Amino acid sequence: xxxxxxxxHGETATPAQPASxxxxxxxxxxxxxxxxxxxxxxxxxxxxNLANTGLTPEKFVLIGADIAKRSTDDWKASLHKTLxxxxxxxxxxxxxxxIDEANWSxxxxxxxxxxxxxxxAGFYQSLKTELESLESQHGTGGNRLFYLAVADRFFGTIVxxxxxxxxxxxxxxxxxxxxxxxxxxxxxxxxxxxxxLNAQVLAVLKEEQVYRIDHFLGKETVQNIMALRFGNxxxxxxxxxxxxxxxxxxxxxxxxxxGRGKFYEQTGALRDMVPNHVFQLLAMxxxxxxxGFKPEAIRAKKYDLFxxxxxxxxxxxxxxxxxxxxxxxxxVIAYRDEPDVAKESAVETYVGMRLKINNWRWAGVPxxxxxxxxxxxxxxxxxxxxxxxxLAAFQDTSLETLPPNWLVLRIQPDEGxxxxxxxxxxxxxxxxxxxNMEFRYSDWFKPEPNVGYETLxxxxxxxxxxxxxxxxxxxxxxxxxxxxxxxxxxxxxxxxPNYESGGAGPAASDALLSHDDRTRHWRPxxxxxxxxxx
Length: 534
Ligand code: BG6
Hints:
15 helices, single chain, eight-stranded mixed beta sheet, binds 6-O-phosphono-beta-D-glucopyranose, Rossmann fold, alpha/beta, Dihydrodipicolinate Reductase, domain 2, six-stranded parallel beta sheet
């Protein structure tokens, strides 16, 4: 499309639109887990990118809290070093060409490090003293954002201590200082533990103070699903059970457990990816149009959607575990040989599922989802298959051979949207061939450095909860998968490992689709060559 319109960068073809984003009002951010990977590789680069676009507050305090004894200067230096290591690295989280030292120094001038043990009440007193002193120095008006970038076992404890120390008092009145807490995933390990954590958190905080984060919602392509569906009139009439045959959602990764064996043995692919990331993709595609774009209007529709997903039966789900193999040309070991993984581990690294949504729009439309590690390539896509033409009216073509139309939302990499349909093959006889219409983000918009946390952090600072999970949403998603978690927890599959690293997952996963309809298959796990998409 870019070529047709002769606008290699669509943005520059129309007069620049005024940027609607303004810097957030004064506030302090306190990051728990200041020395951790999430802070170094994602949160700080995101704050730095926000600073570069003028979207950090003028009056600002940034406190890093962690157990290690170190100085503020040492903390700043290590963050700067991580940022530097991204320069020129095509696999780095942030694609930066250089560090803007003036902007970095401006940001660094607001930073301070506080050492302490998150389970010790005394630590919260020193944090309070430091915070109050910096607040009056920088004039942040007492607005505070606490970011829990720590292992999930600390979530409840930190919130309780914040409450006991009087750090999160929040009246919610216009003009009164606000206090917010960002809680990372995993939010619970089961329905019961998610409910218990919600109860613990909500005993201290109001729901409007809680920002349960899912970083998939920070991806532009995920946010774009709402723009595509609700910013265009042409999709709505076909976005339902009348026209859609089924939907496939794939989150394929090439990475393995990457030294996270201990975490993964407790978690597995289902808990790690499904009730959170994959369900977020599902909700974006299937939720009803909201009555407006206010956060509560959108969250209400998402909640309705989660509440309509049928609780999974055991035979709606298939699990897999990777054996040894080759990924991206490199030999890799089996999951059971990874450090900190049991030799007989029953933990799954792949999940395939069939979901049913019991509402008027989707009744009878199966949603197939799969996610796995050590797969052929990295590919996250939502593929919508439309019902076939009712009749093959063309000579030499039978209904059997008429391929279906696909609308494919490519979330990552090679972000874009493709529509596949049939065209006449040039020649004297009427023969069909599949063709592809392509929208590629990179053809239309200049890529900006972005690690995916910028929008989420910005939204926390301005108090927009649209992209964050409400307590009831989280509980509904656990409700859907809990039965399968229980079943899998009590049995060890005899065939593990059952897929080769570098492959497309276990064979049993294909049966999920063919069982419903023998013409249904998973789409290939491969990123098509740029000019060869079909
Ligand atoms: C994390 C999971 O939440 O998401 C990881 O714990 C997974 O196991 C990651 O690899 C995927 O996120 P992204 O943004 O790299 O696709």
